Amino acid sequence: MADQAIILQTSNGVDDRVLRKVVEWCEATQNTDHGTLDDWDAEFMQMDVDTLFDAANYLEIEQLLELGYSTVAKMIQGKSLEELTTLLKVSHDAITPASDPEPEPEATDLLPYTRPLKPTEQDAFNALLLLQARLPPELALIIVNRAYSSWVVARREERRVYHADDFGQYDLRNNSIAGFYLATRQIPMEPGSFCARSIVFQTRAADQGWATWGGEGTFHNSHTWFEASILRPLRGTQRARQGNHEGELGHDESLPRTWQYPDLAREAFNDRGWDFVYKENGKVTWRVANNLTACSDDRDYRVEWRRGVETVRESKKAQGGGKGFLERLQAGDMVVLWARAETPAWQNRVAAATVEIEYVR
């Protein structure tokens, strides 16, 4: 059988150079499960762009197409318009440059965003037009969705101290505070599908610097932490119809800033056209990260949740896993970050925080 010739018909201008690559891939992967871009795949995909695109137009092998999508997406990520036209061998005459100025780099060293260079929707649209000159529209759209994401980001650099004693008496059961520290703008409500890919929380904070029952320098006996909530416009409100209200809750001076527990803020949010998105267990918050116990110096904490990926955690006491958060997040929503403290005399001393939401259409 090995000595017999295999006759493969070509079509759409595909020649033997493409078919040889197909046979090479099939022989190497016939007994393996290739679902990721591993070292062999990466070396295999080192081919000229013309061959790669011809193969994509012709082949109907799902795994090889997946490999092609990932390869091209990696090729075009971070490329300028000029670099894309050169790489794809396409004229950019039909592309109209964006009139909006390029976003300026961050002017702070305090909790810099984890991905400082975020592509704009215009960048993604330009790449889509260029790819469609070489590929069927449906393939070009898949590649652009993998290479380009949209972002909603929020930052606050303002020191606030949240005392667990602010509500109730000296009572272990009732000493609790939920501080409304940061809110993102509303995720744009635009036509088409929506998928939240990831969210990154960063906090700089400390507690009161001492503890009665031990745990110093660890997450044991930590009673200060951060939680996140999803807020969604109430149906029929002006917000639900218009969307994209930049940080309006964060700048609403009439909104209280602290409650004993986050769910007690619901009435105030409802009055302003928002409501909580609930977890399966009926709660309205997801634990993000705890502060180290009895550490008065500010520490930086970072937590990232990715859709479909189980969060690797130092410990359950250190950070939350975010189960179901991204799956519930929709266009039109906003994310709120709460500073929490409980137990008499405990304080959450917050210096800064950021939230970065990555999504695709």
From TrEMBL:
Record InterPro entries: SKP1, SKP1-like_dim_sf, SKP1/BTB/POZ_sf, Skp1_comp_dimer
Protein name stated in the entry: SKP1 component dimerisation domain-containing protein
Upper classification of the organism: Eukaryota, Fungi, Dikarya, Ascomycota, Pezizomycotina
Annotated organism of origin: Ophiocordyceps camponoti-rufipedis
Top-level taxon: Eukaryota
GO biological process: ubiquitin-dependent protein catabolic process
Domain SKP1 component dimerisation: 63-93
